[in-house]
Amino acid sequence: MGELNQYILEKSKELNIDICGFTDSLPLYNLEEYLLYREKNNVKTEFEEKDINKRIDPRLTMDNCKSIIVLGLSYNIDYDEKPDYLLRGKLSKSSWGIDYHLVLRKKIESLVEEIKKKIDFQYKYFVDTGPLIDRELGRKSGIGYYGKNCSIINKEYGSFIFLGYILTNLNLDISKEAESECGDCNLCINACPTGALEEPYKLNPKRCISYLTQTKSNIPITLREKMGMKIYGCDTCQLVCPKNKGIKKSNHEEFIPILTKGYMNLEELLTISNKEFKRKYGTMAGSWRGKSILKRNAIIALGNMKRTENIQLLVNLLKDESPEIREYSEWAIVNIFLTISQKSI
Predict the structure, then answer these.
(1) Within 13 A of 273's CA, how many CA atoms are on the CB side?
(2) Does residue 105 sit within a domain?
(3) For residue 154, what are the domain limits?
(4) Which of 62, 87, 285, 313 could be cross-linked to 99 through a Cys-Cys bond (beta carbons 3.0 to 4.6 Å apart)?
């Protein structure tokens, strides 16, 4: 590997960036057919770039792009303290601590400045905000291989990693791609609560709980019950993955959930104002969708708890100004009463 590559690797380590890889700027033609399939079968989400060409061709984002630096940051924090309130809605590890967009973006900006000390170059960087498929860039750059749950798995850090990338006009040596180590294991597929993992390496995102907790679209009743107590994101397929056992844990203190302890108070979410929500929770990744979406998810969680003592909290919402909130509250109340009637039979 060339001198400039080694320099970038060394600087990334100094900046406490866990993983660094390099790939070319050739279009990701191998994914074009799959993207067209998703579009045709209405399993494309509203969070994606609509133009498929932009999703696969780096040069449509930066016309003089020659190589791409891909970076990975582990967020696999060991933390098991629970808050003292009882009505707990669960947050994915991806929303623990400070918003990872801010954390990784700051590290990328610092890395860019270090590279500038060595060579003048042009660049564009993204953290989950660019049009390109960052997981495919992660695979091509040797950051990791695709697990059957479609997550990128790194040998040292497992799959709890955030990805970011820098498009550059630099001529960098390309990293070796990682080879899959999933073998015959299907634990993630079997564990998925909604069957979103339809087969190995094939995810229906519109059934994925992580998507359901973020979409503004109506959530089908059959899927609401599968969401359990999750109000933002879902870690199930990663938690059962053997490749996440015995690996390096994250040392990034920014991701320690000091404020939330990995949960949110469901009762608080029903009444907190938008202003107070932003003030208190605005620095966590899950806040980007706004209070209303998390309030809806809290209602679903209360319905899934199936405790009669929670009914009054939901009754108060039947006069909410939002028709969506009223509809979800009604569903949650009915769900609780159905459980009561079934137990009495």
Answers:
(1) 3
(2) yes
(3) 3-76+97-168
(4) 285
Residues annotated as catalytic (active site), given as ranges: 128
pLDDT for 141-192, tens place per residue? 999 999 999 999 999 999 999 999 999 999 999 999 999 999 999 999 999 9
Say if 266 falls within a structural domain: no
Domain count, the chain: 1
pLDDT in tens, 38-76: 999 998 999 999 999 999 999 999 999 999 999 999 999
Is 157 part of a structural domain of the chain? yes
